[in-house]
Amino acid sequence: MAKEIYLFEEGDGTNKKLLGGKGAGLCQMTQLGLPVPPGFVITTEVCKKYYEAGRRLPNGLMDKVKEAIAHIERKTGKKFGDPHNPLLVSVRSGAAISMPGMMDTILNLGLNDTTVNGLIEQTGDARFAYDTYRRFIQLFGKIVLGIDDKLFAEVFEEAKRKLSVKNDYELDVESLKIVVQRFKEICEKETGKPFPQDPYIQLEMAIGGVFKSWMGKRAVDYRREFKITPDIADGTAVNVMAMVFGNTGFNSATGVVFTRDPATGAKGLYGDYLVNAQGEDVVAGIRTPKPIDELKNEMPESYRELVEICDRLERFYKEPQDVEFTIEKGKLYILQTRDAKMNALALVRTSVDMCKEGILTKEEALLRVKPDQLEQLLHKTVDPKANVKPITKGVNASPGAACGKVVFDADEAERRGRSGERVILVREETKPEDIHGFFAAQGVLTSRGGKTSHAAVVARSMGKPCVVGAGEIVIDHEKRQFKVGNVIVKEGDLITIDGASGNVYIGEVPMIEPQLSTHLQELLSWANEFRKLGVRANADTPEAAKLARSFGAEGIGLCRTERMFNAVDRLPIVVKMILTDSEEERIEALNKLMPMQKNDFKDILRVMEGYPVTIRLLDPPLHEFLPRFEELLEEVNRLKYSKGFESELLEKQKILSRVRVMSEVNPMLGHRGVRVGITHPEIYEMQVRAICEAAAELIIEGIDVKPQIMIPQVAIAEELVVIKNIVNRVKEEVEKKYGVKIPIKYGTMIEVVRACLTADQIAKITDFFSFGTNDLTQGTFSFSREDVENKFLPIYISKGILKHNPFQTIDEEGVGKLIKIAVELGKAANPELEIGICGEHGGDPESITFCHKAGLTYVSASPYRIPVAILAASQAAIKAKNN
Amino acid sequence: MAKEIYLFEEGDGTNKKLLGGKGAGLCQMTQLGLPVPPGFVITTEVCKKYYEAGRRLPNGLMDKVKEAIAHIERKTGKKFGDPHNPLLVSVRSGAAISMPGMMDTILNLGLNDTTVNGLIEQTGDARFAYDTYRRFIQLFGKIVLGIDDKLFAEVFEEAKRKLSVKNDYELDVESLKIVVQRFKEICEKETGKPFPQDPYIQLEMAIGGVFKSWMGKRAVDYRREFKITPDIADGTAVNVMAMVFGNTGFNSATGVVFTRDPATGAKGLYGDYLVNAQGEDVVAGIRTPKPIDELKNEMPESYRELVEICDRLERFYKEPQDVEFTIEKGKLYILQTRDAKMNALALVRTSVDMCKEGILTKEEALLRVKPDQLEQLLHKTVDPKANVKPITKGVNASPGAACGKVVFDADEAERRGRSGERVILVREETKPEDIHGFFAAQGVLTSRGGKTSHAAVVARSMGKPCVVGAGEIVIDHEKRQFKVGNVIVKEGDLITIDGASGNVYIGEVPMIEPQLSTHLQELLSWANEFRKLGVRANADTPEAAKLARSFGAEGIGLCRTERMFNAVDRLPIVVKMILTDSEEERIEALNKLMPMQKNDFKDILRVMEGYPVTIRLLDPPLHEFLPRFEELLEEVNRLKYSKGFESELLEKQKILSRVRVMSEVNPMLGHRGVRVGITHPEIYEMQVRAICEAAAELIIEGIDVKPQIMIPQVAIAEELVVIKNIVNRVKEEVEKKYGVKIPIKYGTMIEVVRACLTADQIAKITDFFSFGTNDLTQGTFSFSREDVENKFLPIYISKGILKHNPFQTIDEEGVGKLIKIAVELGKAANPELEIGICGEHGGDPESITFCHKAGLTYVSASPYRIPVAILAASQAAIKAKNN
User: Fold this and answer.
1) DSSP A581-603
2) First vs last C-alpha separation in chain B
3) Does B722 contact A at CB distance below 8 Å?
């Protein structure tokens, strides 16, 4: 049978899967000789057995636990349950992947009505002993016995009110004794049994409680959101460790430090501590802690030792660390170390710095940043030129500006978020239970807590703008509003928060586009050294093109032309073009559109000078530009049942019948893309002419243009032949008219399944392919994105029928297989073929890895995803080299 | 340079591609020593050159023509253009594939104002000579000069009126001379040039005219309808042959015979002839000819010779022949032979007979019947028990009963046919210009002509019911009605025609299902010896199942269950089930449906005893069972603008909003099939239980049942696992309840692209695949059948972008490739896998050939297509063996 328990002296510090991250760290630190209280780890395998056995601990486990406790007793000289010198322990969860706050922890276990006196003997501090006892009962009651925490909180608040004190530590022994008594009564009343006095019973129940929390709603939600699947972390370990106390007087303290600033990445200890407090007080944000720098003066010896330890840990792990420590009567203990969770800004900066400090190689520096996180660095910021005044200011906990409607609880945030509203979650402080509100919100604002409070940590991990500790804010949950002085902000009112400055504004404040930091620029320049994939942008406007170029795009991979049709000044012309039966009128309308399109193309080609610009001809079905059928029908009915609108009615009925004729049962699979180009060649001809003339006019200006004409929805090679004839003819005409040669490439979207299967035929008559993986995924699954994504797809993912949403991450088994077939056939038929991807997957790191493996030429992504794509492409190349 | 002209003595009789069918036959017959007038063939290659050169004859062609004419002159002793003994020739088209009446023919060429006298010298018959001359001018004027035939007809009718005669041959010489003069004047007036007198100019123009007719509208339409692509026939040849005259007196005749009855296949000459007439008179149906049997008495020597020749030709060509002959003053000439076009009945009978006569092997007998034609044999017939009286009776020209609304011209037939109406085309006689009307009509009725008239030939070739020569019918085109005695039938009135009896009825007459003839049964039994593919039926009702079984189906390949949901007594329950929010009400509704479905399944399983019955669980999206959105909206609007309907309005609005929520943008790709099964497992569970209980109850009755449960719309193997768990559980429950073991197979439609690509995973958890090629084609092309088939698909086919409608004939390059991938992956993962196809392609011969090659187990087709599928499957096997 596999070993179920490892002492900290025994465990393999690299085996996080077996020991959990926390357990592995404690073993590692113990073996490195760092001051870790003695303890042991119950493995994640035991957790799996616990569930396999129907939530029961394996037989014989507690005998082994007793042996391990005996080891701690030998190391500490204390005894578990001893009435004079009792050993107290903490019982903590710890999975392979850190899930901060998602699972449960029990402290001070081993206390009972007898050992509380032993604790007094040990410390000479009755107040401390009873305070510790009441903390234990409360935590144990809530987590292991499942009692509503409010019952305890009410008793405790009442005790404080009685003595008219504000802080917990101001309660005296007698009050605490009563609190303990009342807490025990609550437990007995709620569970029907007296509070357990046997420390081993307590320990057994606590171990089960921790295991149980692995499948708690919070933990399950978290794992789903962060895609933590069983192959990454399967069950939690349990860490049992001798208690040390940071709350045994003013030469005691507890704190959390990062070895570098997790918000900026700047080198140097960063964190907070509380004198005379237990760790939970820091994390919960109940008391506002002191910055770590002050420890240098208060406890210089401990501070020096902490700095040394942090440096050793960082070099050992090659990652900035997040370290929990406690100082008990002047002696420093390290209770936990783990890789520091950082926002993207800090990740980028630490990667660059640690590489320069010789801790990391360039490859390691690139690999440690998750590409998705870079998008966080491209948050908008409040325009410094905007003439706006904040109504208040808090702590700048997670950068970026966000605007949304105020909501006061996570459920409301989720409800509104789902229906597409932008919201800002505003609370006194946040708790792990609020996690779904974070997902739904644009940003988070709290009135309490510091930079390591729950809200700050979670928001940073998600890259959401966050302002914490904005103390002037007074929330009135009854009235669903908050006040800052005289200003009242109601639920649903718009506010803007600036997580970089901590400012809070009323209404929507002008913002500006983000710029790349010098650190990010450096990291991306390293990425460029490694990547093989080109990176282009999906951009339809000169502004978007400019932004993409500033982010490093090497061209436009997808410029949609339908958005140009939809512009306010053009739509009426487009509608007329569609509705007329007269060829003449249609051509007249197209002639009006031509110069407009030409100017669009000129602007974009000019911005992208020297780079390819791939312009997709009209894609949507024509009826998409017409008034909506339902609205028209309502209007017709309204006119029909009114009087005196006969001629108007007639007109509308005519349009209605036209719209009805043009409407389609499945527009996604209907008369669109190249099919329109073939039945209405005059439309494509107009667009081709606009592109050619734009190019010609710029060439005459001396500008280096590289237009590429891309045909959508191709299923049959012959479709491309028909359109190519138009392109060639128009190009010749324009070349003759302007007297210049236009360098133009001709290619196609590969977004129809059949195009993949006949890619050899298609490659022979094209210069490039561009995979449209959105449509290709729809065709491959027979899933209409609009119809399935909010309907059954979530059910499929929750039931494990699908691992990912295939519209976000490429489905390698199906869509990926088609892409491979197409690449193989295409390259064999035309070795010069350029192959890109311009679906949304072009900006998804996992999909980019796939594209690298599949041998694509480039990916194309939305401007904000360009840095993501560059980094992901470099990682794909590095990983391929390493394998 | 390739040889452009072949004398009949030279040409390779098997090279129809080069010489055309008619030319090859003439060469062959000449070389067999049959009495063919001398002549030559200008090849189809010359026709291609004519078009390549922009509709101009190749240089030097006419020199070679002159040489060939000299050959004819030598053989006949006549001279082209000779004023005393002139050679006259016919100039006929002839492509590789016979296209009767679709292209042009010119007779009597070489006549002019001088040679007409020579013709008088030759024949001593001035009336004949001038009649021949006027015929020539009229035909040449119409075809070569493009003059409206009406102008000639008016002059001719006027001449007849003047003499008060009825028949053409009653006109005297003087009248004919005037007619000739007037005809020439028409030509000069219409073309601005005198009628050409030089025979070589006439010949050159006529050759060009024939080539031009290859691209005439009629010919192009015909080729498109019959899928005659350039690889089958590319251009027409021109046959120039010495004229012989069947109109030189009462010892002359002209006629057309079939070597077997083209309507029944019975052995023996069959056809008609006209004494003292030219061939065109027979075909056009202007004079009613005599049956060929009478020739035995009138010209016994010629008749005996004709019978001999026909027998030789049939044994030589291994096909019944369609022979044109002319008797000129007692001497028999054969002017053309070609494979006889027959209806399916005759094809089947002649195949069986000729095999028994030792002319054909069984393989040859099977291969010569086009499978599609068998469907013609399954026409309904008028119920003999129906108590109906015909209003009139004509000639039974093409079997089968048809009912439709009367229309009087081809355009109207097409217009109504397109909008889905069933029509019967009623005319005095039909002409090649009416061809589009035939396509659109259910059947054809004429008041003139015999069994070889245009209407009869064309209707038989299409397998459409046809009654000709119903002389009592008097059509009034002005009033758009016809009369039979006192009965008036107006355009749009329903009539029924019975092409087997020649009867015509008012209104819709009861019909009965067809039965297999003994000949067809014999042919199909031979087919069964050869075929490897199984043949099953798509049938949803016991009636359809019974019919399919009587046609030879070996099981049900697709039993759709949604039609059972749509039955009048069930739909309200289904709607309630869908609209309720209460789980309880939904289950209650399903409990009501269960016994109904169980009875459906019992009936079908009972009919198909001993054979597999593949039942597909619910496929369409649930909203398909709800009232239509548009209708509801109209209703709501009506109620809204009326008064006093408040509560009704509220109710309707509730349903409307539910329908709106459930409606989908692209229902084809939405929440349907297995996706509904997964989100609403109670529906599939009900269906599975109904199947299992039906099977169990029949097993107890001692009936051998083989139910197969088939899941639609599967894209992901895991979907099948989820449903399989339900099936297994319910099956066990039912087995326990009834105390019997139920033999049940579990399988899936393969109709989603991704299922093909992951067929290995799917095969591991299924017993069978069934390709749903309708949906698979939609997914592969991104074509929504409903949206494209009547919109751009016809344009695609006419432009040659697609060769076939891929919803009719499997697209081998795309869809076929996916099928091959799926078969390969599936069989490798599960060698026991049974693989069928149940899309509409399962009844399409070309697609069946593909299925054979792809290694499928069976095809499933609609009941009427079962014999088609059996024959096609045997042909596929024979062809594969022969290759």
Assistant:
1) --HHHHHHHHHHHHHHHHHHHHH
2) 34
3) yes
Contacts of B588 by beta carbon, 8 Å cutoff, 6+ apart: none
**How far is CA A372 from each of CA A222, A837, A864, B435, rounded to the nearest angstrom?**
17, 18, 11, 65
Measure CB to CB from residue A669 to each of B634, B787, B801 and give the nearest one.
B787
How many whole angstroms separate alpha carbon B621 and alpha carbon B668? 8
Residue A638 touches chain B, beta carbons under 8 Å? yes
Give me the interface pTM, i.e. the ipTM.
0.76
Q: Do A679 and B802 touch (CB under 8 A)?
A: no
Question: In angstroms, rounded to a whole number, what is the distance separating the alpha carbons of residues B459 and B445?
Answer: 10
pLDDT in tens, A121-175: 988 889 989 999 999 999 999 989 999 989 999 999 899 888 888 777 788 999 9
> Are A782 and B668 an interchain contact pair (Cβ–Cβ within 8 Å)?
yes
| Residues 809-828, chain A, touching B (beta carbon < 8 A) | 811, 813-815, 817-818
Burial label, B429 (beta-carbon count in 10 A; 0-12, 13-18, 19+): middle
DSSP secondary structure string for all residues of B810-863: --IIIIIHHHHHHHHHHHHH-TT-EEEE-SGGGG-HHHHHHHHHHT-SEEEE-G
- What confidence score (pLDDT) does residue A761 get? 98
Range scoring the smallest mean pLDDT among A285-289, A426-430, B444-448, B672-676: A285-289
B302 in reach of chain A (CB within 8 A): no
Confidence of residue A101 (pLDDT cuts 50, 70, 90): confident
Q: How far is CA A838 from the centre of its chain?
A: 22
Closest chain A CA to residue B761:
A813
Closest CA to B247 of B174, B182, B186, B176: B176
Least confident among A47-61, B155-169, B203-217: B155-169
Euclidean distance between CA atoms B185 and B605, whole angstroms: 77
Residues facing B54 on adjacent strands:
none
Question: Distance between CA atoms of B808 and B777, rounded to whole angstroms?
Answer: 10
Tell whether B784 is within 8 A of chain A (Cβ). yes
What tokens does A7 get? Answer: 């002492």
Whole-angstrom distance, CA of residue B287 vs CA of residue B266: 26
Of B830, B592, B834, B590, which Cα lies nearest the Cα of B710?
B834
DSSP H helical segments within A53-198, as ranges? Answer: 61-76, 115-123, 126-143, 149-163, 173-191
Q: ∠B86-B92-B93 over CA atoms, to 5°?
A: 160
**Mean pLDDT within A176-203:** 95
Q: List, as one string, the DSSP characters of A508-534.
A: ---EE-----HHHHHHHHHHHHH--SE
3-state secondary structure labels for all residues of B426-461: EECCCCHHHHHHHHHCCEEEECCCCCCCHHHHHHHH
pLDDT digits (tens, 9 = 90+) for B470-496: 989 999 988 999 999 999 999 999 999
A665–B667 C-beta distance less than 8 A:
yes
- Res A637 pLDDT > 60: yes
Angle at A350 between CA A349 and CA A352, to 5 degrees: 65
SS3 readout for B18-60: HHHHHHHHHHHHHHCCCCCCCEEEECHHHHHHHHHCCCCCCCC
pLDDT reported for residue B605: 97
Reduced to 3 states (helix: H, G, I; strand: E, B; else coil), residue B396 is strand
What 3-state DSSP class applies to A140? Answer: helix
Confidence of residue A515 (pLDDT cuts 50, 70, 90): confident
In chain A, positions 64-93, which contact chain B (CB-CB < 8 Å)? none
Choose, from B379, B436, B454, B623, the residue flagged as catalytic: B454
Number of C-beta neighbours around residue B466 at 10 A: 36
Q: Annotate B659-698 with b (16+ C-beta within 10 A) or e (fewer).
A: beebebebbbbbbbbbbbbbebeebbbbbbbbbbbbbbbb
- B504's enclosing H/E stretch is strand B503-506
Single out the catalytic residue among B27, B838, B841, B851.
B838
